[in-house]
Amino acid sequence: MEPLCPNFDLLPTSLSQKFNLVPSYPCKILSSNHRFITRNLRLFVRAPACRPSSTRNSLQINPSPFESRRATSCLSKDTRADSLFNKGDSERTYGSLIRSIARGVFGVSAAAAVVFGICCNSPALGESVTVAFPVSRAHEVNTVQKTLVEAWGLIKETFVDPTFNNQDWDLKLQQTMVEMFPLRSADAAYNKISTMLSSLGDPFTRIISPKEYQSFRIGSDGNLQGVGLFISVEPKTGHLVVLSCVEGSPAARAGIHEGDELIEINGERLDGIDSEVAAQKLRGHVGTTVTLKLHSNEDSESNACFKEVKISRDYIRLSPISSAIIPHRTPDGRLAKTGYVKLSAFSQTAATDMENAIKEMESNGVQSYILDLRNNPGGLVKAGLDAAQIWLDGDETLVNTIDRDGNMLPINMFDGHAVTHDPLVVLVNEESASTSEILAGALHDNGRAILVGHKTFGKGKIQSVTELHDGSALFVTVAKYLSPALHDIDQVGITPDVQCSTDMLNSPREYLSKDKQSTISHLEEDSCVVVAEHELDIQESKGTAS
Fold first, then answer.
1. What are φ and ψ of residue 268, in 5° steps?
2. CB 428 within 8 A of CB 453
3. Is 480 assigned a catalytic role?
4. Do strands 450-453 and 498-499 pair parallel, antiparallel, or not at all (unpaired)?
5. How confident is the model at residue 390 (pLDDT cuts 50, 70, 90)?
6. Residue among 146, 459, 461, 480 flagged as catalytic
């Protein structure tokens, strides 16, 4: 599946001339310097860096749109970008870039050289600068060499530490290229890229394979084409079993149940096949069919234990939201309704799904809310900012960003209107990270929510994500962030207002897919939920709801 445009570069207007704040993917149709208002947040859309276009032994790398006044010829597909710096800045930046590249040039024979052209459309510099490097005779290694230069250029443009962990980044490219030259396998060559990136001292700046990137996109997009099965290898038997079916999916309609063992896909036995390979076989274009043979535990007669079903693939929407209404008695004896919202990840659909869930609970008379961010590792920054606006009014600061030059700039709402003003408690724990911490900090520091749980993970960095020419993807840390109250989160975390017992901190995510009554019963046994309900009662008794 090819998403239309998984993400945008999102910036408040004041930040639009600085850097990307969230993952950016090559998009088929995207024009730059257009401002959009989405859920009352000022957003800036900029075309991401183009992919290299290779002809024979040449590779063109576009200059950063931050560095060129009219860097239009280098943009991929239908994208275009205009200057984000003035002419003087452009000339100074390019002069430095060219001098640094020139230092890394070394000669090789024409038969073993590849020329990398640095596209240069600055008014002051109209010609390309060429740099010669040794070309591997192994085709697959040569492909990775191009990926290396592409990754190196993106790091040079956007990495949050302009000293590159106190090293000469141009020399690092030269060294890595020389080390890669004698290799004979793509895997070994990719390891050299990973080693180069590890020298930056930032574990979040990394490269992932095309296969890993496709899985990442499914998680961030929230959509795929398939049958709607979650499968896993059972450790004791090694068999592939069904963990669950997406509600309303083709698999659910076909009568497949949790615990069913997957035996064959389209007549092919699955012995020894891992879950990821099997999942790839289940995916496919909408309208195509797949035949599954399963062993069901529901039938008692042995002859009826095996069944074969033919399923037509469809679009599968993976919602990161689970919700329930918890009835409870207030201290004065009234029966109250608390809305419970579990957010498992910040995908593209997270904020919209959350808003829909809250509106539905509002119509059912819910008077307070628990937002559960426990075990949520983060995701798209845009989704976190959009989610914050569901609960906040006005022009509140959602997060403060710090760019590679040390400039701190706030991201503010613009004339926001909350969906609800009912009391709110946010649950967090040690696995609440990144965008979870941005959202928790925004709600807490703006006086909108009380935090209950344990101290959060402590990831105060933001990455951009760029798909490279070979289908792999590069994650680059492009900014740091502080909470609205200027609290440093990185490697520190957020300490909640109220802690709950450590033996009950596990999120009830495993049983949220079961029937509603079972879900409510389990939530009532969760000590953190109980503590949250108590805090909501205190808020209501004091009249402190915003």
1. -95, 125
2. yes
3. no
4. parallel
5. very high
6. 459
pTM for the whole structure: 0.68
Would you call 313 exposed, middle or buried from its count of C-beta atoms within 10 A (0-12, 13-18, 19+)? Answer: buried
Q: Measured between alpha carbons, how far is 150 from 52 in angstroms, rounded to an integer?
A: 7
Beta bridge partners of 397: 412
Percent of the chain residues past pLDDT 90, beyond the cut: 49
Sign of CA dihedral 388, 393, 394, 397: negative
Closest CA to 417 of 441, 390, 439: 390
How far apart are the C-alpha atoms of 434 and 380, rounded to whole Å? Answer: 9
- Asked if 263 and 294 count as a contact pair (C-beta separation under 8 A), the reply is yes
Which of the following is catalytic: 323, 434, 472, 483?
434
* Three-state DSSP state, 534: helix
Question: What Å distances lie between residue 484 and 160, 411, 417, 437, CA to CA?
Answer: 20, 9, 18, 11
pLDDT digits (tens, 9 = 90+) for 24-70: 222 222 222 222 222 333 322 233 333 333 332 322 222 222 222 22
Longest dimension (CA), the chain: 87
First to last CA, the chain: 43
Query: What DSSP element (H or E) covers 251?
Result: helix 250-253
* CA–CA distance, 348 with 380 (Å, rounded to integer): 7
Reply yes or no on whether 434 is catalytic.
yes
